[in-house]
Amino acid sequence: MPRIALGVAYDGSAWNGWQTQPHGRTVQDTLEAALAQFADRPVATICAGRTDTGVHAAMQVVHLDTDAQRRDESWVRGVNALLPPSIAVRWARVVQDDFHARFSAASRTYVYLLINDRVRSPLWAGRAGWCFQPLDIEAMRQAAACLIGEHDFSSFRSSQCQARHPVRVMHRLDIATQGDLIVVTLRANAFLHHMVRNLMGALLQVGQGRKPAAWMAELLAARDRTQGAPTFMPDGLYLAAIEYPERFALGELDGTRLILPSVS
């Protein structure tokens, strides 16, 4: 059967994460129900990266195998007609049989949006994290520098993480500001469960002056989650981009401009 890749975006506020659950209130359950109705047969999907409750995606990639014959644009328009407003298929392509949305991915990029203002903004509710204390951005950048490269990220790993090992390669960790909005961009070969939110919690400890910038390296070396900061809120977290080897000819799957026009 042909293998089809889909680019999917969703507002995670109303959903209990990506992965299917018995109650059906997940992005995967809702997408597969729409796909089954459109293809007139059951459809199973595999995603590039599972997202938790309240986490968004500007560029989730999934693959499916089906003998349903449809044009690429029909997979987009037809499935979207059956989806709620908070989920949308952005593109569809026939891919090679050995393409795997998860295991073929070379890297994932997450973006965390954080409002740093003394008063919360209802316009960003569910779309960005919030910190009312003033933040030392330069100290946060200094703390983040030690995270680049290959490390054991056990200090930032959820106790419920099912990954076989905690070693990951962090390619990029940038912290930019746009007025009261702080944009944290992280790219790695893969991420552990709650890794980005735990990193955000630690960065905020430094930004608020509760810990020195050098503490981040000590925490990383400790490989002990109990020494870390509390897991930060999911509201501002977006799966933003997936990178695949050139042989799959998928191009640049970058959804950061769906989050903010100038984020990249």
Automatic annotation (TrEMBL):
Q: Which residues bind substrate?
A: 110
* Active-site residues (renumbered): 52
Signal peptide bounds: none
Gene3D superfamilies referenced in this protein's UniProt entry, alphabetically: Pseudouridine synthase I, catalytic domain, C-terminal subdomain (3.30.70.660), Pseudouridine synthase I, catalytic domain, N-terminal subdomain (3.30.70.580)
The kind of enzyme this is, by top-level EC class, is isomerase
Q: What InterPro entries does the annotation carry?
A: PsdUridine_synth_cat_dom_sf, PsdUridine_synth_TruA, PsdUridine_synth_TruA_a/b_dom, PsdUridine_synth_TruA_C, TruA/RsuA/RluB/E/F_N
Q: Which GO terms describe its biological process?
A: tRNA pseudouridine synthesis
Alphabetically ordered keywords of this record: Isomerase, tRNA processing
Give EC number(s), comma-separated.
Answer: 5.4.99.12
Location of the Pseudouridine synthase I TruA alpha/beta domain? 9-103, 143-245
**Molecular function in Gene Ontology:** RNA binding; tRNA pseudouridine(38-40) synthase activity
Task: Write down a Pfam family by its short name.
Answer: PseudoU_synth_1
Q: How does it assemble?
A: Homodimer.
Function as written in the Swiss-Prot or TrEMBL entry: Formation of pseudouridine at positions 38, 39 and 40 in the anticodon stem and loop of transfer RNAs.
Assigned protein family:
Belongs to the tRNA pseudouridine synthase TruA family.
> What PANTHER family does the database record attribute to this sequence?
PSEUDOURIDYLATE SYNTHASE (PTHR11142), TRNA PSEUDOURIDINE SYNTHASE-LIKE 1 (PTHR11142:SF0)
Q: What is this protein called?
A: tRNA pseudouridine synthase A
What species does this protein belong to? Bordetella genomosp. 10
The encoding gene is truA
